[in-house]
Amino acid sequence: MNTRVAKEFDYPALRKIYLESRRKNFYWADTEAMTLDDFDKHTEGEYIILAEEDNRILGFASLYLPDNFIHNLFVHPDFFGMSVGGLLLHASIEKMNKPIRLKCISENHAAIKFYEHKGWKKIVEEGNPSEKYWVMEYK
To answer: Which residues form the N-acetyltransferase domain (predicted)?
Structure first.
């Protein structure tokens, strides 16, 4: 398994991963409103790293480099628990300057546990009552 910078020809696969992963795991959200086009809207202007093995894209991270911020980190549901997320997180940390921040939906307990296991700390919980999230930091 390796990481590399995403190219335009990777986007169809990345769109599918983004949609399928959110539909499967974001039980608190309106999954019917999610579309393939969301990927393009939600990663505009971001640096995208992908993880692949045997020419199959397993997941991606999108980074907003000016703020040292991980905006998205998604793994295809078929590859959960196979170290893809950890590899993408490591590649993201290597690309940015510390401290690095991200936001994680408070309802996404599995993701919060993952980040904490990797050394991230919860800083503050923000958002409105129906959409709370944790700002997390890695130093």
So the answer is: 1-139
